[in-house]
Amino acid sequence: MSFDHLRATYFEECAELLESAYAQLAALAQGREDADTVHALFRAIHSIKGGGGAFGFGRLVGLAHAMETLLDLLRDGTIAFTPELVTLMLRGTDALADLLAAERDGAAAPPGLEAELTEAFLAAAAGTGAPASPAAAPPAAAAACDTGWRLRFRPHPAMFRNANEPLLLVRELRRLGPVTVAADASRLPPLERLEAEDAYIAWTFELTEPAPRDKVEEVFEFVIDDCELEIEPLAAESPVDLVPASPSDIVAPSGERPPPTRPPAEAASPVRAEAAAPSVRVDVSKIDRLVNLVGELVINQAMLLQHASILPADLCPGLINGLETLAQHSRELQEGVMAIRTQPVKSVFARMPRLVRELSAQLGKDVRLVITGEATEIDKTVVEQLADPLTHLLRNALDHGIETPDAREAAGKPRQGTVHLGAEQRSGRIVIELSDDGRGIDRARVLARARERGLVAADAALSEAEIDELIFLPSFSTAATVSAVSGRGVGMDVVRRNIQALGGRITLESRFGQGSRFVLSLPLTLAVLDGLVVAVGSEAYIVPISAIVESLRPHVEDIHAVPGRGNVLALRGAYIPLLPLHARFGVPGAVTDPSCGIVVIVETDHAGRLGLMVDELVGQQQVVVKSIEANYGQIGGVGGATILGDGRVALILDIPGLGAGVPPTTTRTIQPQPALQ
Amino acid sequence: MHNASPRASAPVAFAAPPGAGPDPVTITAGQFITCTLDAAEYGIDIMAVREIRGWAATTAIPHAPPWIRGVINLRGIIVPILDLRARFGMPLTVPTQMHVVVIIQTGTRTAGLLVDAVSDIVSVAPEEIRPVPEIGASVPERLLCGLVPLERGMVALVSLESLLTFDEEALAASADASALHS
Predict the structure, then answer these.
(1) What's A587's domain CATH number?
(2) Phi-psi domain of A276 (left: phi exceeds 0; alpha: psi -120 through 50; beta: other)
(3) Domain total in chain A
(4) What are the chain B neighbours of A637 within 8 Å (beta carbons)?
(5) For residue A157, what is the enclosing H or E element?
(6) What is the pLDDT of residue A300?
(7) How do residues A519-559 score in pLDDT, each as one tens digit?
(8) Measured distance CA(A63)–CA(A81) in Å, rounded
């Protein structure tokens, strides 16, 4: 494993650790403080520091160490968590994230970024220690021992596996003063039973120099989870006396009443196992390959079933049964593999509180961010591509939506503005909502601005919804002064494009003076969709179920010709334009009389409802979406391709693209492909 | 079925590593698979050839130029099939079970070439490659990148890069051009 590789892994891990730290801090901010939360936070910061030390990120380690010092007092209860401390911890975590990002990108972090914070942490740790709680005094007194320390140290095999070397620890300890070492080799087995990777030897160190306890603990801080360590004052003849003094006498995090024989690290390990759900880091391309293979397997199984159905039913009943079981298993396998690709939206939502904190400070606004449904799972690719649009919407909400505290008070609202970010699964789609209780959209100003820019004719009368649509136009911004935060007018159109590229929709509701609400509706996954297989001539096409409103066989009297516009279908008082797929795609040999075929009515984002004319409906099935762009290119009206049960390729219709249409004069006829003899 | 070439006279054992492809500008000398369209022989860089398979029905692509015969499912990947004869401006191939498709890969793109048959593997030294004359060529320019005289006749080396560069503009232009002809 190369050094760069290790570095990359470290930064990846840090991203997760930061996420965990933010999650714990969010819990603490909500007043849910228990030992596990503080421990988890401590572990996250500690691990970041540990790796950072290995890579020589001095500034990072300094800050993390200060945070750890404070957290250590918090976790043993010497100091109680206050909202101010949570805020301080959040700022510290933000700074850690910045320092990490700088190290990762090889850029120099702004000087002094962490200096003030480091001091704040140390001050908080030192300041509150003695006067705030008298109970803190005994451990402080116990920490200063004037004789020296006896350390019993028994490494676990894990310590060696993590490439820690006891000799280095001894050398480190020697810096504090003279050390005598006694090795305990009593557990050493005979040579033939010796496992090279096990740990057998324990040591007792005696440090005969008065040294601060925390300095001694610091020597072992990177291995504390992987060993048994007892520290006691050298002079103490009866260690039992010391037990009530303080829980911190034992370095193990959860040590309560530590008899000398108890292995503290082991006591701590169940807590750890609970806190971190076991997970593996897998390259997405590996999962994609698996998805592909499983897709192939499902197709293959369908083919087998098709061939077997030709056989007489009583010829080999076991075969048919076996194939049906296979079908069920392969479908379950497919679902399971697809589920690997999903990820909770938490990973992107977790970045938002920081944005709100920083922006509201910058803008002089008081904003509370409420997050719900962060456990909602969605395709990994979708999650990753949500970050930018969401960041943009949130910036807009804070900059344009939420008013300053004074303005809010004048409008009879609470001084603190609220932004709500929520996710939920709703019938096969993920719906993400971002709402604020700010000033809402000033439609008069939007319209005036659009007229001024010539985006709307001066005499055009627009509905409220149409005015709201204007903000999605390229280069539209109503911010009176262009601020650094938002208002460059390169926003909402990009947001909409990004969401559409993910197969999603974005809609806006707003009430002037009361707030705005953006609703993003996204597909669960990009890799699979529920489709209706339709036949047009000799070709089969897939219509995404999510777009279908209904399908029907039209009556002749309901079809009306509109000159220059083709046919429309009268349906319950509305006229729906008909799009003959055979003409759009140039398929020969299809049904041309609308009343002899089937009309599939689909909903498009811009063109309203559209009736697709097809020959017949073949069936509904889940299809694996394959890229046709990778090896060919984009095709108007086609969003992708899939492989049907017989191994043939079928094109998946892109409904918005179909709605856009092409002039019929440029359509070409598909060359009929001769079938094999 | 895969790697089965009914009329291949040379041993067929190609395992080009993924991503391997010929140099886009200067064609490097080396081994070429020759395939036939009627009597003419064309050379395809062996490093770009992934496999050779029999012709199978394709799924038509709307608004595609006629030389795009559609797409097939190649073990889960959607691969377009080019009619090499039609691409070179000759009439469409009428495929039978005896026709073969040469699957090639250049860069990240994979495509299949419909040809009459695969005939041989030839080794070509750089000095053997002659430039393609500019005039009187029936093949659209830039699709060939060299001519190699052999004892039995001439082999025209196909520029796979230009062959597989069919972005939207090229497709539209080609579709327009063929619309004019018909």
Answers:
(1) 2.30.30.40
(2) beta
(3) 5
(4) 62
(5) helix A157-161
(6) 79
(7) 998 877 666 777 899 999 888 999 988 788 889 898 888 88
(8) 19
d(CA A430, CA A418) in angstroms, rounded, equals 23
> Are A443 and A313 in a shared domain?
no
Decide: residue A402, CB within 10 A, 0-12 exposed, 13-18 middle, 19+ buried: buried
Q: Which residue stretches of A76-136 are H helix?
A: 83-105, 115-132
Residue A429 pairs with which residues in a beta bridge?
A426, A523
Domain boundary among A101, A132, A163: A132
Option in B63, B109, B110 nearest A667 (CB) = B63
Q: Show me where the domains of chain B are located.
A: 30-181
CATH of the domain at A513: 3.30.565.10
CA distance A672 to A286: 38
Is residue A533 domain-shared with residue A499, that is, in the same domain?
A: no
Residues of A in contact with B56 (CB under 8 A): 676
Contact A145, A231 (CB under 8 A): no
Q: From CA A138, how far away is CA A131, in angstroms rounded?
A: 12
Per-state percent for chain A, helix, strand, coil, to nearest 5:
45, 20, 35
Boundary residue ending a domain (A499, A523, A547): A523
Residue A466 lies in a domain: yes
ipTM: 0.73
Say yes or no: A326 and A216 in one domain. no
Class in CATH terms, B30-181: mainly beta
The domain of A416 spans 344-523
* More confident site: B23 or A509: A509
Pairing verdict, β A417-426 and A429-436: antiparallel
Please list every residue in chain A whose beta carbon sits closer than 8 Å to the beta carbon of residue B58. 649, 673
Q: Which residues of A touch B (CB under 8 A)?
A: 292-293, 295-296, 539, 584-587, 626-628, 630-638, 641, 643, 647-651, 662, 666-668, 670-671, 673-677
Quick one: A479 and A382 in the same domain?
yes
* Interchain contact, B73 vs A292, CB within 8 Å: no
Same domain, A348 and A454: yes
